Amino acid sequence: MSSLDGMRTRAVHGGRQDLGDLGVHAPPIDLSTTYPIPDHALGGEALGAWAEGAADAASPVYARLHNPTVARFERALAELEGTDESVAFASGMAAVTAVVQAACLMAGKRHVVAVRPLYGGTDHLLVTGLLGTETSYVNADEVASAVRPDTGLVVLETPANPNLELVDIAEVVRQAGDVPVLVDNTFATPVLQNPAAQGAAYVLHSGTKYLGGHGDVLGGVVACAARLAAPLRQVRILTGAVLHPLGGYLLHRGLATLPLRVEAAQRTAAELAARLEGHPAVLRVRYPGLGGAEGAGVLGPQMRGTGAMLAFEPAGDPHAVVGKLGLITPAVSLGSVDTLIEHPAALTHRLVGAEAREASGVPESLLRLSAGLEDVDDLWSDLDQALRAA
Ligand SMILES: *Cc1c(COP(=O)(O)O)cnc(C)c1O
Questions:
Q1: pLDDT category of residue 294 using cuts at 50, 70 and 90
Q2: Fewest C-beta atoms under 10 Å: which of 110, 155, 159, 366?
Q3: Taking the model in full, what pTM does it have?
Q4: What is the mean pLDDT of the segment spanning 108-115?
Q5: 389: enclosing H helix or E strand
Q6: Whose CA is nearest to atom 1 of ligand 1?
Q7: What's the chain's average pLDDT?
Q8: Is 64 a known active-site residue?
Q9: For the residues 92-121, what does the mean pLDDT come to?
């Protein structure tokens, strides 16, 4: 396999290079917590290498230092994002935490610039200052003026959670200057967008969403250059925010079908968005490329498709709409095989607060929908009857 292979080929074959030598077809799940070290001199060298952030060493030594099953997923994801390496974590939030710790705290910086809106958990983590950082929230065109000498990281999400606003990554990277930019690529997935190609230093995924794809695995991952991956692995060893090998296995397996799932769900989302726009009980639809969508200029050069997430404002009570649905699952999270809907103001973005939500373009009544793999007409019947009944 080469880096010139197509996305679907890389998705199927990535991270499987050692399986032939092992004589197996499915990647083994290595559940060992410790590894025999008959030669303690060599074992000590390996431990020292891991502690320095090495990507490989003679023995895993101990499961918090390294796991071969997780490492296969990391190689596969890095190939999809076009980066040297990737580093997996116990959850998307553990991944966000590790990037702040590596980019800010390990570098002696205390300031973060964040472009709103962001995932509610990321927003709240930065607001609380729990990690010892201070955060300035800005619009995408205000990043340059917010950067200070002690700024260690710029954080953005595109398409943004939950209103699908698009941000020009290369433009924010330009404004950030020497400061590394973290792009949360959870919504777009590597199938539709590779932020590293636009200059992002860190590309983050909540693997819990599209990468796993079946709503049964919690995990996070950061794709980046080798020199940035080493400190992330050091943080992971010290804080213990490791991904369980079973999670690594499931995320790796999820990657094989990722392009097909995203392409299918995207077709459905585009169709639902168009139909919702013509519905008498819908005030406004947010979907990349639809009339009035913010930042639509980056479609094409930055984002290769419009994605499988959409949001809309019903004319009636959003909770009544959700309550009338039968097929569509009322739940937080996204990127699963089934279609999910949720009310950000009540759930995912509750802790952001009404004022900050409104200011960042997230109206009170907005509903967020993650298109799944069902037949689009069945989804439409469900949405249509719920909107009419509410
Ligand atoms: C869910 C999510 C996260 C957090 O990931 P967890 O795996 O739940 O910790 C971060 N960013 C985005 C965009 C998300 O949707």
A1: low
A2: 110
A3: 0.96
A4: 97
A5: helix 376-389
A6: 206
A7: 95
A8: yes
A9: 96
- Asked whether the predicted pLDDT for residue 142 surpasses 80, the reply is yes
Each residue's pLDDT tens digit, 281-291: 999 999 998 87
Catalytic pick from 62, 119, 137, 249? 119
Expressed in angstroms and rounded, the spacing between residue 37 Cα and the centre of ligand 1 is 37
> Among 8, 64, 75, 148, which one carries the catalytic annotation?
64
Contact by Cβ (8 Å): 192, 307: yes
How far does the centroid of ligand 1 lie from the alpha carbon of residue 93, in Å?
Answer: 6
- Backbone phi and psi for residue 240, each to the nearest 5 degrees, phi listed first: 75, 25
Share of the chain above pLDDT 70, in %: 98
Binding pocket residue ranges, ligand 1, CB within 6 Å: 91-93, 119, 121-122, 157, 161, 184, 186, 206, 208-209, 218, 220
Phi, psi of 67 (to 5 degrees): -140, 125
The pLDDT score that the predictor gives to residue 292 is 64
- Residue 25 CB burial class (10 angstroms; 0-12, 13-18, ≥19): exposed
Residues 131 and 155 sit within 8 Å (Cβ to Cβ): no
The dihedral built from the CA positions of residue 331, 336, 341 and 345, taken in this order, carries a sign that is: positive
Per-residue pLDDT of 304-342, as tens digits, reads: 999 999 999 999 999 999 999 999 999 999 999 999 999
Annotate 82-109 with b (16+ C-beta within 10 A) or e (fewer).
ebebbbbbbbbbbbbbbbbbbbbeeeeb
pLDDT score, position 156: 97
Task: Delineate the domains of the chain, giving CATH numbers in brackets.
Answer: 7-255 (3.40.640.10), 258-389 (3.90.1150.10)
Pair of tokens at residue 48: 């020292």
CA 5-29-11 angle, to 5 degrees, is: 15
The amino acid that residue 122 corresponds to is: T
Q: Which residues contact 370 (CB under 8 A, 6 or more apart)?
A: 265, 308, 309, 333, 334, 335, 336, 339, 340, 341
Exposed e or buried b per residue across 29-61, where buried means at least 16 C-beta atoms within 10 angstroms of its C-beta: ebeeeeeebeeeeebeebbebbeebebebebbb
Lowest-pLDDT choice from 131-135, 289-293, 298-302? 289-293
Reading phi first (left if > 0) and then psi (alpha if -120 to 50, else beta), residue 278 is in alpha
Ligand 1: distance of its center to the CA of 322 in Å? 22
